[in-house]
Design goal:
The structure is a homodimer of 205-residue chains. Chain A has helices at residues 3-28, 31-38, 42-49, 52-75, 81-98, 102-112, 116-121, 130-141, 150-166, 168-175, 179-201. With 205 residues, chain A is mainly α. Chains A and B meet through helix 1, helix 6, helix 7, helix 9 and helix 10 of A and helix 1, helix 6, helix 7, helix 9 and helix 10 of B. Chain B binds a DNA duplex (30 and 30 nucleotides) through helix 1 and helix 3.
DNA sequence: ACTTTTGTCAACCAAATGGTTAAACTAAAT
DNA sequence: ATTTAGTTTAACCATTTGGTTGACAAAAGT
């Protein structure tokens, strides 16, 4: 049997499932719809992945592993806090503009099943903020940055980067702009967010 | 026929639907589950609200109207920018700690059906940021606050306040804390977020 | 007293949905 | 050439689900 054939079928299923799950979520997605998207028979989904739940988990983990290592690398690099903030905001926003369904998909499914985070935490490359915490504590002690808990700073960085994508429909309504103008605002945020954060924590001499 | 009886039934349905929809979302919720939660027959849901879609819309609009006027009042008050930031963050975080499913519910459903925001925008009390935009422009021109587009500042305020609730499962995993500790962090944010934002925009003399 | 309207319920229905099966097909191994 | 193992498909199945119906009860109107 052609080895190439079944691997393409298997990965074709995964890609189709990714598109459908990310658009509709686990509960909203239909197995038939995924099969149609992949252009194959529905029974193949079960042949390769057994059940909807397992197919979903394969998609979810793959999506999560697209983002987690990026974050982990930056948190544990030897860069300064400022450089970490700059590189994370620029990288993350650039990446997510290309994959707009990703953050909402992950957040939505984790809210549906919060226990799932424990599975992810035991995997390699799950981000840790230990090094970042030490860096912040040192700079606060040195009087370089304003007193702030590393956890709060971390939450702020994540919020400012992720929320504009997840909250897009709401924010577009509130600030009353069309899709094109909103995309423009997101582009600006690649640099805007980092300077906002740095201004917030830096002590002027 | 007892007038009190049917009005309580109707509102009992709405309350039960609110609980189920907010926990499970539109697609995850089951009409039978809502009926059980309300302790009445499933046919009553259709008797009072015709269809799942209409029941959902009633719940959604009610939930939205719990938050929108709060925001609108603050945006259009005569307070200074700083006071607006302080009162919004404090009010919003206090309110949402009591209704933890609310922000995720609204954001999730707006992402499922982004067109729905147009319905909401035509309602009274839909927040407008015009006054806030003027205030920011003036203070920037006067050199009181750092140059920033009001839209970006608004997105930042919303992000810093809303995301910690929506992203809770993910953030708890990343910063590796239990529910109790995380709740403590949220409490701190009632004041922490406002000073973070004000530090970010204020020009030191 | 009677009719009409409104509210409530158990039983029912058609469509959708995740999942299974048995047979057909394909290509490599013997 | 025949066997063998993996791959693919159409048809099928049991369950779930939103929604309907018809009978019945309780008010309200007359």
């Amino acid at each position: 049997m052609n080895k190439a054939k079944n691997t393409t079928t298997e990965s074709e299923i995964l890609n189709a499932a990714k598109r459908i799950f990310q658009r509709k979520g686990m509960v909203g997605a239909r197995m038939q719809e995924i099969a149609d998207e992949a252009g194959i028979n529905k029974a193949m989904l079960h042949y390769y992945y057994r059940s909807k739940q397992l197919l979903f988990e394969a998609v979810f983990k793959k999506a999560f592993l697209l983002l987690a290592p990026q974050l982990n690398d930056i948190l544990n690099s030897d860069d300064s806090i400022c450089d970490k903030i700059k590189s994370f905001t620029h990288n993350y926003i650039s990446f997510v503009i290309k994959h707009p369904y990703l953050p909402n998909f992950i957040i939505q499914e984790l809210n549906r099943n919060p226990e799932f985070i424990k599975d992810l935490m035991s995997e390699r490359h799950f981000p840790t903020i230990e090094k970042f915490k030490k860096q912040v504590a040192i700079k606060v002690a040195e009087g370089i940055i304003r007193p702030i808990k590393a956890e709060q700073l971390f939450i702020n960085i994540m919020a400012l980067n992720i929320f504009p994508f997840i909250g897009a429909p709401l924010l577009k309504g509130f600030i009353n702009v069309n899709d094109k103008t909103y995309k423009q605002l997101l582009e600006e945020r690649k640099t805007e967010v980092a300077s906002f954060i740095i201004n917030a924590i830096k002590i002027e001499q």
